Amino acid sequence: MFGLYSTITSLVFHFLWLGNYLFFGCRSKSADFFFEKEWLPLAREGALTLRAAFSRDQDEKEYVQHLIQRYGEEVWQWVGPGKAHFFIAG
């Protein structure tokens, strides 16, 4: 996971013109949201689009594939023409 964080931060600081998307999934935000303190500032600054799914934090389970489906059109606008880096973790 640290390798992914290093890669994304390197891309953010060297290739700001590219979009960076991270789909992150785990069971619980409070126990498993690795690098939350690092991801959230990048997302707030607009350097990273972060979509997180926490499968055990609500009654109906939500997984990364649900987020990809929900945001598929938005993602394709960036990934299809090669304007973004696309990461999936979890």
Characterization of this structure:
The chain is α/β, with parallel strands linked by helices. The protein has one domain (2-89): Rossmann fold (3-Layer(aba) Sandwich). The protein has five helices and three strands, in the order αβααβααβ. It has a three-stranded parallel β-sheet with strand order 2-1-3, with helices on both faces. The relative contact order is 0.24.
Strand order of the largest sheet: 2-1-3
Over the alpha carbons, how many angstroms does the gyration radius reach? 13 Å
- Count of extended strands: 3
Q: How many helices?
A: 5
Could you name the CATH homologous superfamily? Nucleotide-binding domain of ferredoxin-NADP reductase (FNR) module
What is the level 1 CATH name? Answer: Alpha Beta
Question: What secondary-structure arrangement, pairings included, does this model have?
Answer:
Blueprint: H1 2-14, E1 19-26, H2 29-32, H3 36-44, E2 49-54, H4 64-70, H5 72-79, E3 84-89
Parallel strand pairs: 1-2, 1-3
Short description:
The chain has 90 residues and is α/β, with parallel strands linked by helices. The protein has helices at 2-14, 29-32, 36-44, 64-70, 72-79; strands spanning 19-26, 49-54, 84-89.
Key phrases:
single chain, alpha/beta, Rossmann fold, 5 helices, 3 strands, 22% strand, globular
